[in-house]
Amino acid sequence: MMKGLTLRDKVNGFLIVLMGACGMFLFCLTSGGAEKGDTIGAIFVVGIIGGLSLTMVILSEVISVVRPVNNTLEDNQDGREGERVTGEIIPEISNFWLGITVILTLLHTALSAAYAIDPWDDWWYFW
Amino acid sequence: MKPLIHCFAPRLTHFAILFRHRSNLIFPVTTTMYVMSVMAKPLRTDKHYINFIYAHFFQYAILGELLWFIGSMRGAWYSVAIGNLVRIPFFALLFKLMLGLRKIISKLPHVELSNFLVSALLIKGAACMATVLFFAFELISCWIEEIDDTTFCNNTSTAALYLSTFLMFSTFLGIISKALSRSERGEIILTKERLATFNLNFKEKLQICCLQVVAWCAMLLLSSLGVASEYNNTNTLVGMVGLVLLVFIFVIEGWHLLNTHKKNAARMQSPEFNSLSKVKEVKSDRRLSGAQLVEGMTLGGMV
What we know:
The complex is a heterodimer.
Chain A: H1 7-28, H2 37-66, H3 68-78, H4 95-117
Chain B: H1 2-22, H2 26-39, H3 47-74, H4 78-106, H5 110-145, H6 154-177, H7 182-185, H8 192-197, H9 202-223, H10 233-269, H11 271-276, H12 290-299
């Protein structure tokens, strides 16, 4: 898994996930009547991030549509064909996905440590 | 740099505490991730990788829960602290189950192993986490609206917690249902005709009834997700009913999986199997797996 993907594909994938997360966040706020400045600011920032991600994905797609015209000519000259990445049989999930799961569970443990140690000793203030 | 960290870190800590106590949404997400990480490379049996799995278990399940236990005790949240301690044996049990499943999965034919990793583990796991993220955003949205008094989000947080846990268990159900090879599973599809005539055995009927009740519980929780109100017992009661039934289905499925696997292993070792069978393939009783039931009921519009 994750083999046969170019850096562009990976970046695109990340941007789409980011856009999806921003979209979900904004969707959840649709029912609320935001009045406070902070809330509107948060909506604005999340909207900008989502919008930028979408723009970059579209730009990347446009570039990839334009570029293969040149690439295909070069490929034909070399006698190569495009690689097929679908229908592959895989023995394991890539280290990338494994890394994400490990990092996020480590983050969970780090939050637990912050909660347990509480160096500023003011967490109770919130309650 | 130091003042900057000092300014933001307490807020992050507050946010983590709020997330943990008010919703426990982190728990289903990280547990799904943890299960995915253990099952990601079933063919790796070298010492380094096994050590990594054990270290990950220690870090996530034992160290994480102990740290939350300490934090909860410091804040005199004794019920939460007890919950943290209770989760350690749950994780130990889950870990033992996953190690057993890893062994079973590693014996799958290459194509089925590949399908399992892609469809049952990665895609379903990612879909589960995306949905849980949606519930988390619902909760954050509520906190933003009720920033002055977040007790009004207790209703949303309870609903989100149970919905996330339902999703987590249904993902696990999908994973264990696909752990055996197709020939071993003897899996059949739940057609609308079979559903209409109710041409099913007792276990399948029981599972369908339980799943239907779980679906109703989930619908009720989903409808109360967006309602900002103080804590009410209805959500907890409905959530607990759904959860108990889902765990019951999970146990039936797990028990059947282990039973089938043991039976097939014994059949393969028997002298009759080696002398009589021309085509050496294992066959099981034809049945509906938990995952197939969920898929069939979804298509039938019941879940």
